[in-house]
């Protein structure tokens, strides 16, 4: 499964990039609103930091406006993927943008039927929002499973991008289901790696090694005297 970070923070993206396992970035207007500076400049800088798909979202709500914004976003950098909300106007815009060869990430997907329509319109990615469904007591992860099951029957050139992942188990579940991509905030990404037994195990290995070194040094000293 490809790992995307769901953030517009260059600090976080630069830090995560050093680990070499981040494949792409998703942003949205809320995430960009948290940052200071020109959102377009931030998107371009993100593209220069991570050489993978970088989603930038349109804010128009009519198809014509979405297409115009989408073309502009795509012109900023080759890595930009145009994020479009899953509404009727979004489907129309996706059809046009996809026909021009622009990659669309259809976002705010909360049902399998929405994902099916998005794929049919030519979206390159569909983003089911797992956590936000969980928030309203609906099983978000089941939506990911349903979409994967549907897409398995057909030949859509569309990847399942599990979004709104709120914890490491969401990521693991998405991977077990075979989601193509999981996007997550930095806090969740960090938790993927951490394990207390790794830390305590490493501490013990290093302490034991220090003992070995001390014993070897003592032996060498005895032999020399
Ligand atoms: O990628 C979608 C994401 O930004 C939404 O996450 O945690 O705000 O539901 P969240």
Topology:
Layout: E1 2-6, H1 10-17, E2 24-26, H2 29-33, H3 39-49, E3 54-57, H4 63-76, E4 80-85, H5 88-99, E5 104-109, H6 112-121, E6 125-128, H7 130-135, H8 140-152, E7 159-162, H9 168-177, E8 181-184, H10 186-193, H11 196-224
Parallel strand pairs: 1-2, 1-8, 2-3, 3-4, 4-5, 5-6, 6-7, 7-8
Helix pairs in contact: 1-3, 4-5, 8-9
The chain binds SN-glycerol-3-phosphate.
Tell me what you see in this structure.
- The chain has 225 residues and is α/β, with parallel strands linked by helices.
- It is built from eleven helices and eight strands.
- The protein has an eight-stranded parallel barrel, surrounded by seven helices.
- The longest helix is centred in the C-terminal third of the chain and has 29 residues, at 196-224.
- The site of SN-glycerol-3-phosphate has 10 residues, from helix 7.
Radius of gyration: 22 Å
Compressed to H and E, one letter per element, the order equals EHEHHEHEHEHEHHEHEHH
User: Uncertain spans, ≥5 residues at pLDDT below 50?
Assistant: none
Structural class determined from secondary elements:
alpha/beta
């Amino acid at each position: 499964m490809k790992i995307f970070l769901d953030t517009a923070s260059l600090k976080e993206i630069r830090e995560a990039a050093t680990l070499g396992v981040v494949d792409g970035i998703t942003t949205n207007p809320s995430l960009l609103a948290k940052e200071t500076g020109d959102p377009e400049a931030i998107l371009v800088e993100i593209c220069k930091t991570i050489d993978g798909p970088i989603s930038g979202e349109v804010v128009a709500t009519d198809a014509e406006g979405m297409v115009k914004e989408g073309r502009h976003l795509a012109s900023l950098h080759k890595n930009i993927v145009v994020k479009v909300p899953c509404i009727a106007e979004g489907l129309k815009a996706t059809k046009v943008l996809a026909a021009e060869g622009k990659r669309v990430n259809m976002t705010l997907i909360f049902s399998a039927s929405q994902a099916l329509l998005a794929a049919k319109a030519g979206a390159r990615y569909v983003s089911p929002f797992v956590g936000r469904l969980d928030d309203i007591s609906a099983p978000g992860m089941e939506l990911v499973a349903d979409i994967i099951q549907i897409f398995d029957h057909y030949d859509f050139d569309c990847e399942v991008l599990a979004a709104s992942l709120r914890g490491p188990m969401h990521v693991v579940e998405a991977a077990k289901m075979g989601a193509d991509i999981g996007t997550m905030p930095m806090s969740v990404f960090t938790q993927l790696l951490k394990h207390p037994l790794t830390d305590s195990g490493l501490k013990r290995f290093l302490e034991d090694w220090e003992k070995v070194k001390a014993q070897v040094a003592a032996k060498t000293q005895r032999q020399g005297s």
